[in-house]
């Protein structure tokens, strides 16, 4: 990112390491999310988040996704870099994935996405969802024909099943519907979308499908390979 020009990117989405202190590995892909300590992780993130602010256009937005391990550590850093006044939402992506929880606490079934803008003049294309119940003719004029405005709790996008057509096999892959929503809301046709931790390439593929330009960065060769394959051949290669 240090090679990018100032204010050259319209939308940034980050799905960085979550400080799991695990090695992720399957038959095809692997990467490490192990750290010396939390300070080392936060220093790593702060350097990169500072660069995202420099390269983001004044009309741009940034979405930072993480979970309970680090989201409350990353929020003060984002406030410091982007300004508390530019913090728009803490979006809760709630999902019903498998797995059991310990008897001493609730099951962890959501990620948090921190949504910031560079200024008050950011791109925002309002999205609406259908009403959950019918509307009587008497009161119909009081409601928008396309449904209610989307809120900051997203429970209609599910994690990828083992048989999902878009699944690449890359660990931590996110569903393309999640990125479709973010990119549709905070960018326009032809805008440049950046994912500095592109992983399986979901943000890049979504941007490609939606007519945006895109840049992906990842230090992991497996991420580069799967992202390139996905962009060349679409989703039909993955089952």
Task: Give a description of the structure.
It is a single chain. The chain is built from 5 helices and 11 strands. It has helices at about 40-55, 70-80, 175-185, 200-210, 220-235; strands spanning about 10-15, 20-25, 30-35, 55-65, 85-95, 110-115, 130, 150, 155, 190-195, 215. The strands form 3 sheets. Strands 9-5-6-4-1-10-11 form a 7-stranded mixed beta sheet, with helices on both faces. Strand 2 (about 20-25) and strand 3 (about 30-35) form a beta hairpin. The protein is globular and about 60 Å long. Residues about 235-239 have low confidence and may be disordered.
SSE layout and pairing:
Elements: E1 9-14, E2 22-25, E3 30-33, H1 38-55, E4 56-66, H2 71-82, E5 87-94, E6 110-117, E7 128-129, E8 148-149, E9 153-154, H3 176-186, E10 192-195, H4 202-209, E11 213-216, H5 221-233
Parallel strand pairs: 1-4, 1-10, 5-9, 10-11
Antiparallel strand pairs: 2-3, 4-6, 5-6, 7-8
Helix pairs in contact: 1-2, 3-4
């Amino acid at each position: 990112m240090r090679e990018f020009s100032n204010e050259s990117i319209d939308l940034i989405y980050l799905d960085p390491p979550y400080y799991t202190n695990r090695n992720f590995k399957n038959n095809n892909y692997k990467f490490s999310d192990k750290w010396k300590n939390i300070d080392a992780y936060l220093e790593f993130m702060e350097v990169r988040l500072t660069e995202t602010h420099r390269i983001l256009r004044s009309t741009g937005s940034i979405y930072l996704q993480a979970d309970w391990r680090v989201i409350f550590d990353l929020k003060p850093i984002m406030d410091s870099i982007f300004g508390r006044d530019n913090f728009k939402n803490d979006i809760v992506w709630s999902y019903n994935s498998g797995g059991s929880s310990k008897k001493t606490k609730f099951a962890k079934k959501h990620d948090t996405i921190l949504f910031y803008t560079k200024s008050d003049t950011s791109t925002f294309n309002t999205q609406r969802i259908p009403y959950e119940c019918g509307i009587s003719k008497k009161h119909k004029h009081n409601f928008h024909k396309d449904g209610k405005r989307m809120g900051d709790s997203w429970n209609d996008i599910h994690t990828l099943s083992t048989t999902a057509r878009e699944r690449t096999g890359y660990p931590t892959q996110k569903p393309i519907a999640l990125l479709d929503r973010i990119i549709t809301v905070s960018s326009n046709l032809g805008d440049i979308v950046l994912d500095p931790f592109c992983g399986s390439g979901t943000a890049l593929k979504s941007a490609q499908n939606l007519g945006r330009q895109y840049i992906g960065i990842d230090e992991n060769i497996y991420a580069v390979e799967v992202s390139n394959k996905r962009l060349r051949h679409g989703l039909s290669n993955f089952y």
